[in-house]
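Dear support,

I submitted the protein below through the web form. The confirmation email said the job was done, but the results page showed an empty box. After a refresh the structure appeared. I'm attaching both so you can tell me whether what I see now is the final result or a partial one.
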Amino acid sequence: MSLPDRKEAEVRRLLEQRTAEPVPADLAERALAEGARLLRRRRALRTALWTGVLAGLLALAVWSLVIQPWSDPPPVTTPPAGGW
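What the results page shows now:
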């Protein structure tokens, strides 16, 4: 018996020996509920992240309009009066 044939025969023997384990009757409903819960969590997380990003952009826009960092700062000292 060659190597692949021996492996195949061993797998077949293991599958035939294995007894069928009972599957819970509500397995599909539980899987559906778990999947729906995961989707709700992902959607809530995505919404929270986008809300945070938009709030940050809004804060940056308000800050830049109030502070106007692109304009020249006011002079700190007065220019000298008269000559030297």
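Response: this is the final, complete result; the empty box was a page-load delay. Residues 27-67 form the longest helix (41 residues).
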